[in-house]
Amino acid sequence: LSDDFEVPLGLYLQASPPRDIVARMLRNLKDIHTSQSDWLRLVAVLNRLLVLQPDAWSDYRDRGLAHAALGNSALAVEDLEKYLLCAEDPLDVDSIAYRISTLRRAKS
Q1: Is residue 65 part of a domain?
Q2: How far apart are CA 83 and CA 59, in angstroms?
Q3: Which CA distances in Å does 90 have to 32, 48, 57, 106, 108?
Q4: Distance CA 107, CA 54 (A)
Q5: Segment-wise mean pLDDT, segments of 10 residues, the chain, 108 residues
Q6: How many distinct structural domains can be found in the chain?
Q7: Owning domain of residue 19
């Protein structure tokens, strides 16, 4: 029986630019470090991702939250503010704004 909806294998095997491959590997590491709450390594991975994709605004949010978990309040506020300023219609505006105010109060 032949499947009329079968997709040619070649469509799945398209070449990817090296930057895309590196970004995908870093995103896999990001997921691993996030699931293990390994904030230091997560920040290192996000630093590299943001060099490759400086407009990935959610990565600024994630790096800010990782900095907050590490106690780096100033860096956390900087990244979280950048996220709120640059991301288009983020769904988590209220929770991130609250987190920023909490970090500022703790710093004072």
Answers
A1: yes
A2: 8
A3: 24, 23, 10, 25, 27
A4: 27
A5: 68 86 97 98 98 97 98 98 96 97 88
A6: 1
A7: 9-107
